[in-house]
Fold these 3 entries.
Entry 1:
Amino acid sequence: MTTIKAIANAELLTYVETTSAWNGYPEAVQGAIIGFDSFKQAEEVAKQYGLKIISLEKLDGWALWHRKGEIFDALQRSSDDYGSDYNQFCHQDTKFFYENEIKHCLGDFDNLDDLCTFIEKRKMVFEELEKIEENELVITYCGNYYDTIKKETMAYSFDTHNYAIGVVE
């Protein structure tokens, strides 16, 4: 029987150790494979070797990943991951960005300097929107550019938390 570590090596993926404990404490330690480029790739490896696709989480400083449970799609991201005062835009938002994000605010400024600062910040958001691909989002904080992220991903890190999709026996 092929071990999960050997499968990870054969598929050029990453072997990690996991725990069933939600706090990262070693409990029912089990190997897993992460590092997939797509959910389809995870499905193919799982099917080929009779493995199960799961969601994993690991806090910075933990040695082990926590097995959260079975998952049936890539990890979904949005501005909701960040908290209040964050917003998201997709590439299609470039079409109505001026009307929705700038035009109605123009009368809110008392001086030219504040208006110019507002427009420069919104222009930066717009320029980022023009660069992104279909599977990406531009995240803003209080109207200012913050980050560009994938809508769907197989792994990401945010605020000391690391998330990944993996396969286990």
Entry 2:
Amino acid sequence: MSGNPSRDGLHAIANYGAPDGDEMLLLRGIENVTNSIRRGHSVSAHAYVSYRKLIDRVDALKAALDHRETMQGGHDD
């Protein structure tokens, strides 16, 4: 068994070596939903609204991080 949670199930998370806790839930959840949508699975109206809200929050996070990098000179090469 390779220890890949997407192939081997949740018990493989302990041996996967990827992020844990909330980060694992968020990243793996987004990957699973993305792959499901790409495969053509249906998306309920409630899920669609939730995904759009998540995207808005991520866009706001990106803008905040970009602003912080600019303030700290993170883009200076």
Entry 3:
Amino acid sequence: MHYSEIEIPKDREKLIGCYLYLSNCLRSLWIDYVTYAEEKHGPSDPDMYKILFNEMDFLEGLRQRVADRLPPKLISNLRKVDDYNSW
């Protein structure tokens, strides 16, 4: 399934909740990636990178669709809340 096929809510509060939820998922996935990449013996499965980055691409695309329905000023403030992009 492609992220463009996911139905997203129209209600502003639900959109905000979706945005925060997706940001949390992305942050968690990023932590998993960094942990995996920094393992003592190093990553040995290149397919793991494909899985991680495909999942990140899916979540980022979906989050952008949600962001497109919210005011830019609000998105600017939401990006300051526990967002992995600020690392």
